[in-house]
Amino acid sequence: xxxxxxxxxxxxxxxxxxxxxxxxxxxxxxxxxxxxxxxxxxxxxxxxxxxxxxxxxxxxxxxxxxxxxxxxxxxxxxxxxxxxxxxxxxxxxxxxxxxxxxx
Length: 103
Known about the structure:
Layout: H1 55-68, H2 72-86, H3 92-95
Helix pairs in contact: 1-2
């Protein structure tokens, strides 16, 4: 197994000799669409987003999830589903690709 290249090995500092290029994988000839993180299959129908929560809100969501033996994601999705329906939109399940939507 070869040694992993240093993250700072390619940095050039003022007054220092230029660093030798670090050998790496050959550049790809064709650009990829969007690649998924290692070990995950690409999901073009899903958008990744972040939510910033106050610590106490996150703690309580974790508590709810633990009590119900589900993930925090599931609790958040329930809230998103309730907000969609409250504003007259179909449920999260109805909006998933491949689902038949009710008219």
